[in-house]
Amino acid sequence: MNLKFIRGNIISKSAFKILLLMLTCFVINYIVFAVNDEFGSLQLLSLIPMLIGAFFLNIFGSVLIAIILSMLYSPFLYFSNLYTTNFEIAGWVIRVIGYLVIGFLLGLSLKELKKYHKKLLDDKLRSQFSNFYNLLKLIPDLDALNEKKEKYILVFFNLVNNDELRKYIEFDNLRNFIIDEFTKIQNIFNDAQAYSYSFNQYVFLIKDKGMDEKKCYNLLLPIIKASSKSCIIGNYSINFLLKAGIVSSSINFTTSKDLIQKARIISEQGNPQEVGIYLYKQDYIEERKLYYEIATSLIDALINNDLYIMYQPIVDLKSRKIDSAEALLRWDRKDKSPIAPGLFITIAEETGLILEITKWLITNVIDNYFNFRAHSIDIVQTINISAVELVDFKFSKWVKNIIEEKQVSPSNFNIEITERVISSNSSVLKHTLDLLKKTGCKIEIDDFGTGYNSFKTLGELPTDIIKLDKYFIHRINEKQIHTMIKCLIELIHKIGGIVIAEGVETKEQFKILENMGCDKIQGFYFSKPLEIKDFYSYYNNFDFSKYE
Ligand code: C2E
Ligand code: CA
Ligand code: CA
Fold this sequence. Notes:
- With 548 residues, this protein is of the alpha/beta class.
- The chain has 19 helices and 15 strands.
- The protein has helices at residues 2-35, 39-72, 89-124, 135-147, 162-168, 171-187, 213-227, 256-267, 282-303, 341-351, 354-374, 387-390, 393-406, 427-438, 454-460, 470-473, 479-494, 507-516, 532-540; strands spanning 153-159, 192-198, 201-206, 230-233, 236-239, 242-248, 276-279, 307-316, 321-331, 380-384, 413-418, 442-448, 465-468, 498-502, 520-522.
């Protein structure tokens, strides 16, 4: 029934076009007749309906018009005899042939032109790399399905080790390999279409009515697992690591783009370098939304002065006094949920905003130095700085300028760099640290023991202090860890360094560390990080004997 209607529709549309063309022929004919013009003008004008015919109906259209026109100007029609009195049959036959050839060529050219145009359009909708359709096609395809309220599944694939593959495999081989692998995956589904999102990201649209997220998961799981094993490409044996995120059109989403983004976010879970397959989870989307919110509002926090500093006292076991304090950032989010510094600092590091944040921190820490002195508080302030900042030439220059401008000695500050982020071959970092050390500023290695290069760091960087991570302190009762800490303290002392134990929470931990000869203690056992006014009173009332 439907088909009949469609066919009927097409036929009536074609009939309308043919009628329109015929009418055009008659109109032109009449114009020529009315103005009593030369026959040549008629022939030129005849090209117009032929072109229109070719446009609507290709070669058939232009040839049809050629036939109609030749009939209209045939000596057999009374109408044609109005132009001329001596209409010769031989001349007419030549004209018929001419019309037919021109009609055919026009139709053919327009057909080729249309083909070329279609190809150009199609190229725009395809990825130059994989030749799969791209987002420009995926979005309208999804829009159409959404409009018809049809159910479907989207699978977002991330090729995790894309960079490594590109490094080791010749471009064309890699492209063929990726296309082959995704085509193979596409073929396990009944009705799936692969789209390219970027070089290393692909989206499958699965329209199979019998498919749901769980079935899709079960089908893909062995493939994702197998993809972590070596694949053979030409002479290479290489891993093809995939992460996949599955969402169905039945979840809450606003636009097709929104649904694709949700699938992408879902696929980005877990360790960045590991394979994985994940089903839609609203919680995860909410978490990512929070990250976006943090990334966008952090800059406002900086401008509006919503960041502030807390100080955690560090107790020196020899002098039995608070001799330093670690400056720890906090974010006053007003009525919004609080965010742990570990999270917003990580986001600031990943977005590059950390440079501005650290500048803010240093400016305020210097101001606090003068406030501390005004309150007779004589301590060294410890500042956390990431290695990325220390290798930034402009940043080092800025630090030098502010120290000169505020006329403060760098020896009143220690710098903490986390061992985890120290890259193995940073000669620039070493150079900057050497310069800082010359100014009297001390260098601390934070979270010591949690990175990969602990001993290399000790040997290469001009380190004064190591901060033993709370991971070890919390396990100090385990025999092996106990021995390790003891030996480490001795070792650091032998090379002229100082050890701070971080995360000391109990008297027992404190006593063990004291007996081992640890130099300084930082942790909740003495005090949590404090706001400045609380720090003043803690400092002024501090009595070491209360903790013994
Ligand atoms: P971190 O540099 O290792 O700082 C020590 C963290 O351990 C602080 O967490 C502190 O509150 C916590 N801590 C201290 N004593 C104890 C204890 O006895 N038990 C336990 N469980 N925790 C203890 P916080 O303030 O949440 O900071 C987390 C991380 O955020 C910091 O780790 C540091 O990496 C980063 N951070 C904080 N402020 C700054 C900053 O100004 N700049 C940079 N780059 N990073 C910062
Ligand atoms: Ca620290
Ligand atoms: Ca630490």
